[in-house]
Amino acid sequence: MTTQAHTAQRELGVVAGFDGSPHSEGALRRAAEIAARRDLPLTVVTAYRARTQFYATYAALPAEPEAEVKRRQAEELVHSASTLLDELPHGPGTLTVVEGDSVGALAEMSRRAELMVLGSRGVGGFLGRIIGSVADALPAHAHCPTLVVPSREVPADGPVVVGTDFSPTGRRAVEIAAQEAVERGVPLKIVVALPRPDSGEYWYPTLSEGAAELIRLRRGELEQELDEKLVALRESVPGLEVTGEVTVGVPALVLKQAARDAQLTVVGSRGRGAVASALLGSVSRAVLHGADGPVLVVPAEEAEDTGEEQAGEA
Predict the structure, then answer these.
(1) Quick one: 160-311 is in which CATH superfamily?
(2) Which residues contact 177 (CB under 8 A, 6 or more apart)?
(3) Which residues contact 210 (CB under 8 A, 6 or more apart)?
(4) Where are the chain's structural domains?
(5) Can you give the chain as a three-state secondary structure string?
(6) pLDDT tens track for 45-65
(7) What phi-psi label fits residue 55: left (phi over 0), alpha (psi between -120 and 50 degrees) or beta?
(8) Of 33, 41, 144, 211, whose CB count within 10 A is highest?
(9) What's the pTM?
(10) What is the pLDDT of residue 184?
(11) CA distances, 104 to each of 15, 98, 110, 247 (Å)
């Protein structure tokens, strides 16, 4: 699957964050499967950060500087992944360590990656500050899609479900979700949520009509746009089985309900919400926190990261 326009420059391929936790081992297995299936390089990375230390006397200086200790520990940790890699289809992969804040280090690596893969929880200091930390923060800053993998097993025959609001990022999420569905040989389900006018979660062109009439009109517009998208996808993506629905309700809850049996849920990093400054939209964040299965967060195209994309959140 091509996830970025400049794939020739993304030499790291599929990047798996590894901290030795069971969640990161599961993420590494998933990353290796994807890399093998797409014939991409596999990179395994551990991040470390050495604190600045001050010592009152020369005698208090440690025999080995903390930065060197931290790096050696990180190298030992990432090389422990080699045993697991020997059992996986891709082969050895590339093992590397990076110094710095874990989110910043991984975000920088994502400039040269096709896909970042993280476990939803870890052991602390790297992936580990549970969801709400690296696995929560990286999708907002990554320059390629980020796959967050929980420990829970998901149905192997479940569909790929994508939530969209037809913003540029939402449309890109649909395109990538379609490629994921074809690659996995499963159906694609497109979900469009329509918040009620009094929820404050969505902008309606006019509030002069009653709520019921506004919903009816807007639902008709979205269903027409969805139908056009379904036709276009069936024509442009051979072999794709795709359906769609427009549902009135809170977007995060609508998407969670639709994705309860999904093997993968796909969302854009942000779309047409009410908070322009949010890097990761409220729906995307809620899905990351509430989904039972893997979640793929798709960022905006960097060339398009202006104008309408800066007008809201997913």
Answers:
(1) HUPs (3.40.50.620)
(2) 160, 161, 162, 188, 190, 264, 266, 296
(3) none
(4) 7-149, 160-311
(5) CCCCCCHHHCCCEEEEECCCCHHHHHHHHHHHHHHHHHCCCEEEEEEECCCCCCCCCHHHCCCCCHHHHHHHHHHHHHHCHHHHHCCCCCCCCEEEEEECCHHHHHHHHHHHEEEEEEECCCCCCCCCCCCCCHHHHHHHHCCCCEEEECCCCCCCCCCEEEECCCCHHHHHHHHHHHHHHHHHCCCEEEEEEECCHHHCCCCCCCCCCCHHHHHHHHHHHHHHHHHHHHHHHHHHCCCCCEEEEEEECCHHHHHHHHCCCCCEEEEECCCCCCCCCCCCCHHHHHHHHHCCCCEEEECCCHHHCCHHHHHCCC
(6) 988 876 655 555 655 555 656
(7) beta
(8) 144
(9) 0.81
(10) 92
(11) 14, 10, 10, 37
Distances (CA, A) of 74 to 14, 46, 60, 277: 20, 6, 24, 35
Residue pair 149/285 in contact by the 8 Å Cβ criterion: no
**How confident is the prediction for the chain on average, in pLDDT?**
79
Q: Which one of 3.90.1150.10, 3.40.190.10, 3.40.50.620, 1.20.810.10 gives the CATH number of domain 7-149? A: 3.40.50.620
Average pLDDT for residues 222-249, to the nearest whole number? 95
Task: Tell me the Cα Rg of the chain.
Answer: 21
